[in-house]
Amino acid sequence: MLTTKTTLHPSFPPTMVQAQSTPSWHNFRILFVFFSLSRVILLAARVKLLVGSDKHFDYRHFYEMAQLSDRGFYPHIHYWVEYPPLFPWLSTLVYRLCTLIATSTGIETWYYAITGLLRVSAEMCVLWMVYSIACEIWGDKLAWRSAMLYILFFVPYYLWNGAFDPLPAFALLLALYSLVRRHEALSAIAAGLGAAFKVFPILIVPLAVCTLPNVWQKVRYVAIALGLLALSVIPFLVVSPGIMIASLGNLLGRTSWETIWAILDGYFGPGSVAPLAGRFSPSTAFAVTASSIPWNIVTAVFFTIFAVFYLRFWGKRSGRRLIAGTGFTLHLLLVYSKGYSPQYLIWVAPIAAIVFPNVKGAIYLALLGVVNLLEYPGYFHFLPNSTWLLVTVVVCRTALLITIGFDYLKTALWNFKLEHLTTIATS
């Protein structure tokens, strides 16, 4: 019979420490080393192919953006960026470092290698968090299963395309792990810094407000998380308000892509923004394609769903409920979001592997991975004129997000037991 403590309480046992003496822990270390080496080898092959290539990938996009610093142009000051400030500036600093240690094509090689290693290191930390969080809520034997599911069924799109999502995804999971372990300050710091990379980690803040036991802890958490996020934005608002407002406006005003909303608007392409040369004017940051979607009504409906969930979630203290609540709100946000990119799977996969360390989790991750591959490279590289394929992918992905999200909702609010959990734990 599986017995596990999942309440958020100071006396919660340090399961990771206990796990370090178990066979599961030793197996995980071997798995972690294999996982790390495979990612580094794949990265090395990718860097070799990228150097000198004029094909458009995120790697190339961020490199060209950082190159603007050679002419004295910096993100959020001289030109707007479609992301919060932290990564564009980190990318620029890496590029400036590369110019000090290399010349010509060597700068490009070093840039891809360093930024790639940052991404790989972040995903290694994501795997570590998957195991650590699963240890806290299920015990080390099921944590081993969660780690295996994550490695076997997650499609690492970002390694090929160069998206930086592993960094904020690690911040999200670190915020969750710290909150489960009752390290509220560290959790708030991770949530704030993660949101300065990408907005998703901000989802932890209302969940923390719901679960923390007293008003002072709630206020402190919000102040730290939102304070750090504000510190990443306010200096640019002071130095270059027009460009920074344009950057923020781009997050809200972009045309829909690769979602149900994009299909309804008749758009079948990827997410697109103005080229770098056109970003020195704030007016180019906003969507130019009119939408037929009544966004005021859609936003009101989703806001109501979020509000009702938080009211029902108020006062919950279980670690498992917290992780499932994060999964539900993440899926709800993805369904509501105007845009979706294949690398977003790195936000979805770790939570699924943690909450469903069983056959159900394997099925969920496998289906999400297949849909992801059909979208990219399937549709965008091989069948770009087959709009029926993108429609099918978007409908199936949305249905999966809703189905898995409802499963999270049951666990978060009603604490339903996962199917076959006892059997898995004792097998």
Task: Spell out the blueprint of helices and strands.
Blueprint: H1 15-19, H2 23-50, H3 58-67, H4 86-101, H5 105-138, H6 140-153, H7 157-161, H8 166-180, H9 184-197, H10 204-211, H11 215-239, H12 241-253, H13 260-264, H14 295-313, H15 319-336, H16 345-355, H17 359-382, H18 387-414, H19 421-426
Helix pairs in contact: 2-5, 2-6, 3-4, 4-5, 5-6, 5-8, 5-16, 6-16, 8-9, 9-11, 10-11, 11-12, 14-15, 15-16, 15-18, 16-17, 17-18
Descriptive overview:
The chain is an all-alpha fold and 427 residues long. It has one domain. Helix content is 70%, strand content 0%. It has 19 helices and no strands. It is globular, with a radius of gyration of 21 Å. Residues 1-20 and 418-427 have low confidence and may be disordered.
Main traits of this protein?
19 helices, single chain, disordered C terminus, mainly alpha, 427 residues, globular
Radius of gyration: 21 Å
Q: Which structural class do the helices and strands define?
A: mainly alpha
Summarize the main sheet: none
Globally, the shape reads globular
Mean pLDDT: 86
Question: Helix coverage percent of residues?
Answer: 55-70%
Number of domains: 1
Distance between the termini: 11 Å
Which range does the strand content fall in? under 5%
| Helix segment tally | 19
